[in-house]
Amino acid sequence: MLPRETREHKLHIADTLSYQTSRVHWKFGGEFLQAWIYNYYPGMFGGEYYFDDVRVNPWTYAPMKHGEPLTPLRAYAHEVPRYYMQNFGTAVSHPHL
Description:
Layout: E1 5-20, E2 25-40, E3 48-50, E4 54-56, E5 68-70, H1 72-77, E6 83-85, E7 92-93
Antiparallel strand pairs: 1-2, 2-7, 3-6, 4-5
């Protein structure tokens, strides 16, 4: 639906050391896991219009506080959005940080 890209790189190191005698068995181990994640998701950077119940002037369809109520479908037909939302900043995130 949108241009989206997610890359994940992982470094995983694991090792086990064991030592055995006639009476005792020793076992030691360790593990290391590191992840680098790059996420590009430009959702709403171009902006989105939301059409909801809105009141307008019945002659000009300009939004007003005490006007004629419009349903979301009629508001869309008359190009009168209730909200406009847009994201700013960078579309790249690094969730591993």
